[in-house]
Amino acid sequence: MEQSTTKSRVVGVDISNERTTFAIVDVRGNIIVKDSFPTNDYPNINDYVSELSNRIVEMTEANGGYECIRSIGISSPSANYLTGCIENAANLIWKGVIPLAAMLRDRIGMAVALANDAHVTALGEHAFGTAHGMQNFLVVSLGYGIGSCIFSRGEAHLGHDGFAGEIGHTCVVPNGRPCGCGNHGCMETYCGSKGIITTAREMMAASDAPSLMRQLEKLTPRTIADCCEQGDQMAQEVFRRTGHILGFSVANYANIIDPEAIIFTGGIAKAGKWLFDPAYESFSKHSFHNTRGIIKFLPSTIDDRERDVLGASALAWGIKEYSLFK
Ligand SMILES: [Zn+2]
Q1: How many angstroms does the Cα of residue 166 sit away from the middle of ligand 1?
Q2: Residue among 125, 122, 98, 94 nearest 112 (CA)
Q3: Residue pair 204/250 in contact by the 8 Å Cβ criterion
Q4: What's the CA gap between 108 and 106, in Å, rounded?
Q5: Ligand 1 centroid – CA 41 distance (Å)
């Protein structure tokens, strides 16, 4: 009897500066098995591709075999879906343009798709999360950097060069704070984690008012939010100012795109009401009157620990299977 060769699984890979996580995921988004290794142990990209490929092969052989894996999806900072390359990543050890999708495909003999983290997050939300069933939505990821993805008519809108959705680098304060991208006043320099910390430091320097933030060993969006919970007024004001900028910034975005919802993910989204109450107020105030009160602000419902590999698995299902005869 012929053995069944239905390819009912994919591999999802998430690359961050610290760790590379990879998992076998089925069509319903169940993670069959997951593992990880430190990305920074492989400063040479060829060594990295060998390690990743060996680890994926080992994992698949121990879990149902190579035959049931259809394709591989990879989430990485600064990845361009249209070229399959990681392009000049500021936050990874490999510099320049890395054709990672082609390198892994040639090594492992499976179709490989590569996309940036915001794009992959949006695919995951669409397949398995808050955006399930939505055709038009925005995902805004709030972390060290601020990424976003526009979903239009059920598909990610990538733009001409693959760089659509860089809301973090839209200008919110002309001639404002310097940004890592070389520009000034980018939204990320106010609403990203470094921006929130800068706002807190500026406020503490500008007054002698007491604040729990002054005693913090480490100032982070999370510890500032903890101070908010304890009733600290200055900490609450930090998030009010951040929320104000975030709100009008996404209102400008929504006024152009007209999404059904804006879905927020990332570590800073954990600040909850301290950030989103002022953000929604500012958003409503700056929204076009016909959409005011209609566009929803929603949190991601996918577990943080699973979001990236699940999104990467959704990316993998979207590509054609590999064939030597194409
Ligand atoms: Zn910038």
Answers
A1: 9
A2: 98
A3: no
A4: 6
A5: 29
Chain segment 91-133, per-residue pLDDT in tens: 799 999 999 999 999 999 999 999 998 999 999 999 999 999 9
Phi, psi (deg, nearest 5) at residue 170: -85, 150
Distance 180 CA to ligand 1 centre (A): 6
Inter-residue contact 126 to 139 (CB < 8 Å)? no
CA of 147 to the centre of ligand 1 (A): 11
Q: What is the pLDDT of residues 40-95, one digit of tens each?
A: 999 999 999 999 999 999 999 999 888 899 999 999 999 999 999 999 987 799 99
Q: At which residue do the structure tokens 């490989």 appear?
A: 112
Q: Are strands 261-265 and 296-299 parallel, antiparallel or unpaired?
A: parallel
Q: How far apart are CA 187 and CA 250, in angstroms?
A: 10
181 Cα to the center of ligand 1, angstroms: 4
Quick one: the chain helix, strand, coil %, rounded to 5?
40, 20, 35
Q: Reduced to 3 states, what is the DSSP secondary structure of residue 143?
A: coil
Q: Compute, in angstroms, the gap from residue 132 CA to the centroid of ligand 1.
A: 31
**Residue 61 structure tokens:** 């052989």
Tokens standing for 289? 């009157």
pTM of the model: 0.90
Helix (H) or strand (E) run with residue 79 in it: strand 79-80
